[in-house]
Amino acid sequence: MRLVLASNNAKKLAELGQLFAPLAIELVTQGSLGVAEAEEPHHTFIENALAKARHAAAATGLPAIADDSGLCVDALGGQPGVQSAVYAPYTPAPGLEREAQRRAQDAANNTLLLEGLAGRADRRASFVCALVALRSAADPEPLVAFGRWHGEILAAPQGEGGFGYDPLMFIPALGATVAALPAATKNAHSHRAIAAAQMLALMREAWHLR
Predict the structure, then answer these.
(1) How far, in whole angstroms, is CA 21 from its chain's centroid?
(2) What are the residue numbers of the active site?
(3) Coil, helix or strand for 117?
(4) Measured distance CA(54)–CA(39) in Å, rounded
(5) What is the pLDDT of residues 54-99, one digit of tens each?
């Protein structure tokens, strides 16, 4: 089966491609098929993932899969949630390369998060991933998987790896922040890995893939 990933993120393609390797699936990005990114106007991960999957399936005529993910902090009522990547206001400097812009946005997001948690004893948080797969844009039975990776937000960053909120997200079960974990360990335990394992089982059951 050829399955369109409703993303142009090469890292996401590689990670999900590895996770779905046990199935007879060829995973391709929507960008490689000339499909633009979908709008993500919703307030929940599942709604945004569904919108992205429907957009990719409608544009290509192929089955599609999409994810939406972010950080949910208990003391902030689940924020930053679907706005995780753009939580803090940030205007990129002219001529700044894309990777530098991403790092600057990440730093602004982390600063705003720590300001919101200042003086709070409850630092519990979860990385969350919603995965949605459709056989077609009109599929009445979308497959939905949900992964949560529980941790707590530190008062200062630790670790040099990862991106986004990884330096602040401490995973008690692993004794380290996500940014301090080896990539293989992160990929094996992450919210996306948890959701992908559920999706793998759903595809085998509902789509009869082997």
Answers:
(1) 19
(2) 68
(3) helix
(4) 11
(5) 999 999 999 999 999 999 999 999 999 999 999 999 887 788 888 8
Return the structure tokens found at 19.
Answer: 């996770």
Element (H, E) at 67: strand 64-73
Contacts 24+ apart (CB under 8 A), 201-205: 202/133, 202/143, 202/145, 203/23, 203/133, 203/143, 204/23
pLDDT of residue 23: 87
**Residue 105 and residue 164 in contact, taking contact as beta carbons nearer than 8 Å:** no
Hey, what amino acid is at 47?
A: E
Helices 10-19, 191-206: inter-axial angle, 10-degree rounding: 50
Residue with tokens 């939406």: 68
Q: Please write the tens of the pLDDT for every residue from 146-196.
A: 999 999 999 999 999 888 999 999 999 999 999 999 988 998 999 999 999
How many other β-carbons are positioned within 10 Å of the β-carbon of residue 2?
11
| 46: its two tokens | 């599942």
H helices present in 42-142, as ranges: 45-60, 98-117
The CA distance from 148 to 189, in Å, is 10
Instruction: Please determine, for residue 10, whether its predicted confidence score (pLDDT) is greater than 80.
Output: no
